[in-house]
Amino acid sequence: MRSKTSAGNPCTSDEIDLVSAAGRHILDLAALGLAPLLALGHYRYREARPALPPQCHQRLLGLAFPARGEVAFTVDGEPHPVRPGQVLRIPPGHTYQTGEVQPRGELWWLILHYDRDAEDALGQAIAGLCAQPGPLIGAAPLRAASSVAQAAELAGREPRRLAEALLHHHLSALVLELALTPPATPPASHPDVARALTWLEEHLGDPVQAADLTAVSGMSTSRFYEAFTAETGTSPKDYLRRKTEYARAWLLRDPATPVTKIAHALGFSSSQHFATVFRRYQGAAPSQLRIQ
């Protein structure tokens, strides 16, 4: 989800980056005549990718829909982790970026043109979304990401004119529904999951495994995995990416510490296994990070 910008000022252009790549596909909605719907994007990364640099649009509204895994966005300098069931709203004039990487997982995004003088219902819905307080839209509709995915499947189908009209209908209906949805309030965290997450943060430097989180929660494995996924958008095993984030900070803080020592301290069976997992979530090998 990005516009092409100059290095000094991230708000100088609303030209949308429409280049698709491995794991990342962009559909040019404007070229299909579906404006003010401009672009529909999707990534499904098996490994972390380089971070999205700071972006800012003059007349564009961006909506991000995580489908799998949490994405750590920063909007106007404030962190806003977004997980499945939530929608991130980025109005014109607000600067946003991802964290240190674009994480492993799946994300949809929709870019729309904002016209404050629009008189049609869709244009007014976009204006309403731009005027809402706070970056997060309420948890309803929980099916937002799947709705976008179903709409995307219409692209290229025959007869094209009918398929594109239905694509416009589905996306417009979603935007209208989101405009009627109140801003998000922080969801009540499951107490047992919250206890496990707090414990994990306190033991990131220890050899923690997913089974340890289950034990701390006091729940059965199946119930814990279900509740954990509902709270975080990913499984306990996948959430252990936090250990690689801890390792990243360790590597940058203390370059003299051998990678093998860090790997063993964090509970990895070997430095090779650690390097594989680290690359998956951080987008580079530990040795490459130190070179940078």
Features:
alpha+beta, 6-stranded antiparallel beta sheet, 292 residues, 11 strands, elongated, 3-stranded antiparallel beta sheet, 11 helices
Overall description:
This protein is α+β, with helices and mostly antiparallel strands and 292 residues long. 39% of the residues lie in helices and 19% in strands. It has a 6-stranded antiparallel β-sheet, covered by helices on one side. Helix 1 packs across helix 3 and helix 8 crosses helix 10.
Sheet with the most strands: spatial strand order: 1-2-10-4-7-11
Radius of gyration: 21 Å
Beta strands, count: 11
Number of helical regions? 11
User: Gap between N and C termini, in Å?
Assistant: 25 Å
What's the structural blueprint in terms of helices and strands?
Blueprint: E1 24-28, E2 37-45, E3 49-50, E4 60-68, E5 71-75, E6 78-82, E7 87-90, E8 96-98, E9 101-102, E10 105-113, H1 121-131, E11 136-137, H2 144-152, H3 160-179, H4 191-202, H5 210-217, H6 221-232, H7 236-239, H8 241-253, H9 259-265, H10 271-282, H11 286-291
Helix pairs in contact: 1-3, 2-3, 4-5, 8-10, 9-10
